[in-house]
Fold:
Amino acid sequence: MQAKLIQLGFDVELVLDQDRLDMARAVQRFVRRLQAPERASIGLFYYAGHALQVDAENYLMPVDAKLLNEMDVKPETLELKWVVNVLQRNAKTGLIFLDACRNNPLADRLPGPSRSAERGLSALHVSGGDLMLAYATTDGMIADDGTGAHSPFTDALLEHIATPGVVLQLVMSRVTSSVLAHTKGRQRPWMSTSLQSEIYLAGTAGQPSVTVAAAPPRPMKSQPAFGEANSTLMVYPFQGGRVTVEGRGISWKPREHVLARGSTLEAWRYELPAGAYRITCRTDKGMFNAQKLLSTRAGQVDSYMCP
Structure:
C-alpha cells in the first residue's frame, strides 16, 4: 500500500507495529503536516491491524495493549473517533481506510454484557467536512484475513485505487464488487461519506497527476431562474441497482444520463436546479435499499454512493 500511495503522489509515512504512545504521536505528526501552510489537498489515513468495539465505540489496537476488562480499553488503545475528528478538522479532504474489522483474540478476554467486542467494528457515520470513511466490511461483521500477502479488502484497493479517470466513489464500488466476488458474498465493504465533490486519485482522463477536490464555489449574487439546471448530482448504485431522485418543493423534470461500463450500470448523472432532493436506492431486483436527503449547490458537482 505504501508503494501504491507513493505512485499516486502521496507523501507517505509508514508506521509499523507501534505501541499506543507512538501510534498517537504518528497521528499528531500527520495532523501537523495537514496544518502546514503548504498542506496537501488530501489527507489519507490507512490502517491494517486489529481493532475492536466496546459499547458501540471503535478502538485501534497498539502492539502493547493489555486488556483484562473493559476499563482497560480507553487507556490502552487509540479511539477511532479521535482520528476521524482530527482529520475532519484539519484536512481539506480526508480519506480513512480501515482494514481492521477482524475478530480480535484479545476481545475474548473482555467479560460482562458488552459481548459486541467479539465481532467487528460499529458503524461510525461521518457528517460535515469533506470526508470518506471506508471499512473492510459492514458493521458487526468479521473481515477475511485472506491467504496471501494482503486481505481481500486491501487486495481490492491495490487493484482499483490507481485506475486513471475513475472517480473515487466508483473506485470504492469496484472494490466492493471485488471483495464480494473474492469472499463469495461473505464480506461487503461499508462506507460513510460526506465528500462534496468528485475525487480522482489517479487523475482524470488525459491528466495523470492526482486530481483533488475543488474548492467550494463562491455564493451566487443572484438566484437562478426557477427550475434552471445549474448543479450536477452523481449517484452511484451498487451493481446496477435503481435510483430515484425526487425534488422537494422544486418544479423539475429529471434529465438523467446513465454512465455504463459493459453491461454494468456505474452511475446516474443528474443535471438539476440547486436544492434539496430525496435519493432512493434500490437493489437490482427493485427491493428498497437506502434513502438519503441531500442538498445540491449551484455550480458544483455533488455525489452520493448507495450503500
Remarks:
- The chain has six helices and 14 strands.
